[in-house]
Amino acid sequence: MDDHPSEAIVLGDFGTLLRQYRYSTGWTQEELAERSGISTHAISVLESGRRRPRLSSVARLVAGLGLDPADRDRLLSAARGESEPQPGREPVERVVPRLLPYAVPDFTGRRGEVDRLLALATGPAGARARPLVISAIDGMAGVGKTALAVHVGHTLAGRFPDGQLFVDLRGFTPDQPPLEPGAALASLLRAVGVSETALPSHTEERARLWRSRAAGKRYLIVLDNAVDAEQVRPLIPGGPRCLVLVTSRRRVPALDGAVSVPLDVLGHDEAVELFARIAGPDRVAGHAATVDEIVALCGRLPLALRIAAARLAHHPAWTPVELLQRIRRPQKLLTQLSDHDRSVAAAFVDSHHALTPAQQRAFRLAVLHPGEDVTQHALAALIDAPLEETEELLESLHDHHLLIERTAFRYTFHDLLRAFAGELLAREEPEHLQRAALIRLFDHYRHTAASAMDLLAPLERHHRPQPPAPGGTPLVFADRADAADWLAREQANLLALARHATDADLPEYAADLPAILWRHLKRHMPAHEALGLGVRAVRATRQLGDPAGEAAALRHLGLVQYQLGDFPQALDLLHQALEIQRRTGNRNGEAHVLANLGLTLTRMGRLEEALDHQRRALWLSRDIPEPAVEGIVLLNLGPTLTRLGQLQEALDYHREALDHHRRGGNRLGQAIALNQFGEHQQKLQRHPEALDLYQEALDLHRDLGDTFGQAESHTLLGDALLAMDAPASALRHYRAAIEFLPHTGERYNLGRIHFGLARTHRRLGEPGTARKHAEQAVEIHTSLNVPEAAEARALLDSLAE
Question: Contact at 8 Å (CB) between 574 and 554?
Fold first, then answer.
C-alpha cells in the first residue's frame, strides 16, 4: 500500500477518501478506531471499499477525524455514492470533537491530585471565566500520568462544551521522534474544523490560527507525553476559558504559568487496591501478606502493578504465591514485569534514550553507591567529574524523574529504576571501570569521615587511620557542628559502605572505616550494627596482615560486646588485643586496652583486678605521655574507687578527670566526668549537688546530639530526684531515658532504668507496675551476671510481700 496516496481522489470513492483523511492526521487505523469508537477491522474494511458505510458510522468517523464542514460533506457524499455534496440536502450535524482516549475503569487513588486539578479547573465560585490553567503533570515512566490526565479530562468534559482534544506529542515514544510543534498544531486545527487546504504552511502561522480558533471557546486540551516546554509552548491557546493538561516524564519549569502536579508512586493501600481490582478480589483473598510483598517488589508503580496483576488474572491456576515466586528474583524482576505490548523495562529504556551520554553514565554509575542516597560529592567521586558538572547532572536526572529527591540535595532511585540502572551498569560499564569508580567513592567517604572525626575528637587523631586526600574537591567542614551534621546525615550510608567493603573485596576500607568512626559508632549507632562492622574489621586486618590494626579492631569489638552486656566475650577480645600490643611493643595501645579491661572488670564487680589494670594504664599513659588515654583512665578510676569505698581518692580522680577534659576542650569527656562526679556526690547523700552535676552533663550531651549520654544523664537525674522524694519528677526522667536507650543495645543501663522505674512506681503507690519493671531489672541483670542482680531481686521480693 502506498503511504503517500495521490491527491487525485475520485469523488465518491469513500474508502480512498477516508484513508486520505486518516493519513493527513498521521494516525494508524488503531488510533482512528480509538478516537472514533469504530473497530479497527471495520475501518480496514471501509478503506478497502468492500462495504458501504452506515451514516451513523460516518458521523463517528467525522468526529474522530475532526473534519471541517466541507470535508465532512465530501465524506458524507462519498458514503452515499454521490459524485459531490448535494445542494439542499440536510448536512450532517457538526460533531463536537471528543478525542480523549477511554478512561480506564479501574483508575485507583490519586485523590489529592484529582481534587487539585478539579479545583484549578473549576475556579472561584461564581466566576464567569477564569484565566487559562496549564497543569504540568510530571513523573517517572509508568507512574500513571496519562491515566490521571484522561480521568480528570472525562470528569470535566461537561464543563468544556466546545470539545475535548488530545494530542500525543511522542516525547518518549520508542523509535519515533517527538512530534514537531507544527504537526501538533495541525492536529489541533483539524480537530476544530480547519480543512487541510486551509492549514498554513509555517508553524508560527498555525499557532496564530490556533489561538484565533480557540478564542472564546471552552476547550479541554490534553497534551500528552511532552518532551519539553519548547514543544508545548506554541500549543497553548490564548483564550481565558480553556484548560490544558500537559504530561511529561520531565519537569517543565520553563512553561510559564504552569501549575506543577508531580506524580509519585501510589501509596501502599492504593497499590493493593489497584492490584486487587485488576487481578480480581477473589484471586487475592486470603493472601494479604503475599500481595503486600508483590506490591513492594513492584515499587508501587502503577504500570508494574497492572502488568503483574494482569499476569495473575491471565493464569487461573496461579495464586499470588506463584506470581511472587516469578518476580521475587532480582535478576528477573524487570523481565517478569512485561506483558505483550507493555513493559516496565521498555518504558525505562525510552526515558534513558532521552539522556545525553554524560547523563547516561552518571545514571548507571550512581547505582554503584551501596547506601540509601547519593549526594553531589559522592556522585562526583563516582563519575570523576567537577562538582559543578555533577550538580547539573543530578538536576537533569531528577528532571527526567530517573532520580528522586526526598531530602534536599540527596538523591535516590526508585527500586525498579535501581534494578534497571544495575542492568545497564553490568552491560555497558567494564568491570575495571566499575571498580575504579567504587574505590573513588570509598576514598571520598574515608577521607571525609576522618576529617569529621578529627574535628569532633581531635585528641584521638593519631589513634585513627589518616587516609590521603582523594582526587577532586574534598568536602571541608566549617566547624564541629557541620562535621556532626554530616555524620548524622551520612550515618546509614557509612554503615552500608563499611559492610559493602567486605563484599567488594576491599579489606583496607573494611578495616579503616570502623576504626575512623569508632567514637561515633559507640555513641550514636546501634550496637548490633557496630558488632557486624567490628567482626568485618578484625577479618580485614588479618587479611591485610596488619597487627596494629588488628589489635585496635579487637579492642573496639570488645567494647561493643561490653556495651551489649557480653562481658566474658569482651574480656576475651580485649586480652587478645593486649597480647598483640605487648608483642609488638606498642605501649600506647597497651595502656588503651588496660583502661578498657579495667572498665569491663568494674562492671563485672571484679574491682581489685579492675583497679590494678587502671593504675597500670595511668602510669603508662603518663610515662609515654598520652593525654587521650590518660583522660580515659581518669574517667574509669573514679567509679571503681567509689564502689570500693575509697571515696576521698575517688573524689580526687573525679576532679582531675573533669579538669583534664576541660583543659583539652573534650566536651564529651566533660559530660561523662560530670555524671560520674554526680554519682560520687550522691553516694555521700549530697543529692542537690548531684542533681546540678547531672543537669550540666545532660545539657552537654544534648548539645553533642549524644543519645547514649542523654539516656545515662536522665537515669541519674531520676535516681537523684527519687532520693529527694520527688517520684513524679523522677518518673519523667526515667521515661525519657528509656526512650533514648533501646537503639544503643546497652542492656546494663536498661536494667538500671527498669530498677529505677520499679522503685518510683512503688513510691507512687502502683505496686503492679512496679513489679513488672522489677521483673525486667532482675531478668536483665541476672542474664548479665552483674552484682546489681541481687539488689533487683530483693526489690522484687519486697514487692511480692
Answer: yes
pLDDT given for residue 755 in this prediction: 96
Residue 758: CB partners within 8 Å, gap ≥ 6? Answer: 770, 771, 772, 773, 774, 777, 792, 795, 796, 799
Pairing of strands 342-343, 243-248: unpaired
**Cell numbers linked to 302:** 502503577
Percent of the chain whose predicted confidence (pLDDT) is above 90: 64
Would you list the DSSP string of 734-780?
Answer: HHHHHHHSGGGT-HHHHHHHHHHHHHHHHHTT-HHHHHHHHHHHHHH
Label residue 6 by pLDDT band (50, 70, 90): very low
CB 486 within 8 Å of CB 477 = yes
604's enclosing H/E stretch is: none
Report the distance separating Cα 676 and Cα 697, nearest Å: 10
C-alpha cell at 192: 476544530
**CA angle (362 as vertex; 371, 468 as ends), nearest 5:** 60
H, E, C per residue of 715-726: HHHHHHHHHCCC
Mean pLDDT of 483-508: 94
pLDDT tens digits, 646-665? 999 999 999 999 999 999 88
Question: Is pLDDT above 70 for 52?
Answer: yes
The pTM (predicted TM-score) of the whole model is: 0.79
What are the angstrom distances between the C-alpha of 390 and each of 146, 222, 370, 418, 449? 31, 35, 19, 19, 21
Instruction: Assign 172 to helix, strand or coil.
Output: coil
Max CA separation in the chain (angstroms): 121
* Residue 336 CA: distances (Å) to CA of 292, 332, 413: 17, 6, 20
Judged by average pLDDT, the poorest of 9-13, 346-350, 469-473, 637-641 is 9-13
Q: What is the pLDDT of residue 8?
A: 34
Lookup: cell for 434: 566499575
3-state SS string over 53-69?
CCHHHHHHHHHHHCCCH
- Measure the CA angle with vertex 413, ends 410 and 415; round to 5°: 145
At 546-583, the pLDDT tens digits run 999 999 999 999 999 998 889 999 999 999 999 999 99
The gap from C-alpha 307 to its chain's centroid, in whole angstroms, comes to 24
DSSP 180-206: PHHHHHHHHHHHTT--GGG--SSHHHH
